[in-house]
Specification:
Length: about 325
């Protein structure tokens, strides 16, 4: 059933100013009244007459202001901060950008694995003149990624994109899922919760690609590290600090229970037990910190494509993409 057209859109992410308007014209939505702003007062005022919102941040006050909203779309893939009680109870259609993060999340995870096995963090990070004076090929000799086992914890868009790419490089791909499901493309073997210790024991790399839910908060904890190889490397593809038990992670690194860790923190979170910025934890040779790199130019373009495709689907009364399961939390 066709629905009333979208006429007014609020975008509370100023980084997309210009891009949204240009895409609207290309998509045949030049008639839209689009307000792009980072000013909260302007956002709240504009929401009062808006039909849809493209939200980088979303809270109860904005929802209340948008009394005439027909649809909410979150820019991000993770929506835990958007699921406040009023939004969970709201009948508004709620979609997010999660379908667009699969490829960049997979490629970033592979880049970390290749960095570790090829020792690029050691070799490329040294002064450019180091290797001009003579051969140093045996210095921290690399290993092949082919033949290694990667355990993917969470088979959402990132996990599904990573599995066939890792398999194409000769890796043995293991998947851990909450409930039994058909094996995804590229996956050698799937494990459910009752077989998690076996899954962890076989993994040379553990890629954490989970959403944040009440069930997953603090899930990557002591029992996880205790069941892993002491050479295994943990990769935080989700970029969600709340998934980790940080004191347990520090103990695992300090005690040599795991081989290393790479994360994309949004900042320091002392309330989670993360080490402070002066801690030598962050200076260890096997701990790597990256800005968020599970994004890309292509992902931003795909995010805009998704928004306008969903607008077309909304107006046509078709099923939308990236629908948020409010009960599941993602």
């Amino acid at each position: 059933m066709t629905k009333a057209p979208i006429r007014k859109v609020v975008v509370n992410w100023p980084a997309w100013d210009g891009r949204v308007q240009e895409q609207a014209s290309r998509e045949g939505y030049g008639h839209l009244e689009i307000t792009v702003t980072g000013d909260r007062a302007v956002t709240l005022a504009s929401l009062r007459e808006a039909d849809a919102v493209l939200a980088a941040g979303w809270d109860a006050e904005q929802l209340e202001a948008g009394a005439n909203l027909k649809w909410v779309h979150a820019v991000s893939g993770g929506v835990e901060a958007h699921l406040f009680p009023e939004m969970v109870a709201s009948p508004l259609p709620f979609t997010c950008g999660k379908p667009t993060f699969g490829i960049p999340g997979a490629e970033w995870s592979l880049s970390v694995m290749l960095m570790v096995t090829r020792r690029n963090h050691f070799a490329i990070g040294r002064p450019k003149t180091t290797y001009l004076a003579g051969s140093a090929d045996d210095n921290l000799l690399p290993e092949d990624l082919a033949g290694k086992a990667v355990g993917i914890l969470g088979m959402g868009y990132m996990g599904k994109a990573l599995a066939p790419r890792a398999a194409a490089l000769g890796m043995r791909v293991l998947a851990a899922t909450r409930t039994p499901r058909p094996t995804d493309d590229g996956v050698f073997e799937s494990f459910t919760a009752d077989r998690l210790p076996e899954f962890l024991a076989e993994s040379d790399f553990l890629v954490v690609a989970l959403p944040v839910t009440p069930q997953t908060k603090g899930m990557v904890a002591g029992p996880v590290f205790e069941n892993m190889k002491d050479s295994a490397f943990v990769i935080d593809a989700s970029a969600r600090a709340t998934l980790f038990d940080w004191p347990a992670l520090v103990r695992a690194i300090d005690g040599g229970n795991i081989g290393g860790f790479c994360t994309q923190p949004s900042g320091l979170h002392p309330d989670l037990g993360m080490p402070g910025i002066e801690s030598d934890f962050w200076q260890r040779d096997n701990v790597f910190v990256s800005p968020c790199r599970t994004t890309s130019n292509e992902q931003v373009a795909a995010g805009l494509d998704l928004f306008f495709e969903n607008m077309r689907r909304f107006e046509a009364g078709e099923e939308m993409l990236g629908i948020v399961d409010r009960k599941a939390g993602y």
